[in-house]
TrEMBL record:
Keywords: GTP-binding, Nucleotide-binding. It comes from Sistotremastrum suecicum HHB10207 ss-3. The lineage of its organism: Eukaryota, Fungi, Dikarya, Basidiomycota, Agaricomycotina. One of its GO terms (molecular function) is GTPase activity. Gene3D superfamilies: P-loop containing nucleotide triphosphate hydrolases. It comes from the Eukaryota. GO terms for biological process: small GTPase-mediated signal transduction. The keyword Nucleotide-binding applies. This is Ras-domain-containing protein.
Length: 125
């Protein structure tokens, strides 16, 4: 039986949760075992990191609540997401509000673009 491999990997994480972003770094960034297994199995598979819940950055109550928790840290910034994407080897960092169909559509359009680029590269070789 042949193993199936993904055409693209989309990792979603809420910008409201710094611990989740840190877990992505621990799990998917080098030198973690997940990263090593992933790269060995799907070396050429494109990956997209998606920051969700971006609307929470504009909500003063949510931002205040994030600063008042034990860490005293606000939501994850766009620049931090881009940096994390580079660290884990993602092809792209995108952000969206899951309640905005247009933004969600952009994530999937980017995934399809990466897949078509991957396939066209395979056929040109």
């Amino acid at each position: 039986m042949k193993k199936l491999s993904p055409s693209v990997i989309i990792i979603c994480v809420s910008v409201r949760s710094r611990p989740s972003f840190q877990e992505i770094k621990r799990s998917w960034g080098p030198p973690s075992s997940t990263f090593k297994r992933f790269r060995r199995a799907w070396d050429k598979t494109p990956m997209i990191l998606v920051g969700t819940d971006i609307e929470s950055r504009a909500d003063p109550e949510i931002v205040h609540g994030l600063f008042m928790n034990g860490n005293r840290e606000g939501p994850v910034l766009h620049e931090e997401g881009e940096r994390l994407a580079k660290e884990i080897g993602a092809s792209k960092y995108l952000e969206c509000s899951l309640g905005d169909r247009g933004q969600v559509k952009q994530v999937f359009e980017e995934a399809f673009r990466l897949i078509s680029t991957k396939w066209s590269t395979c056929f040109l070789q």
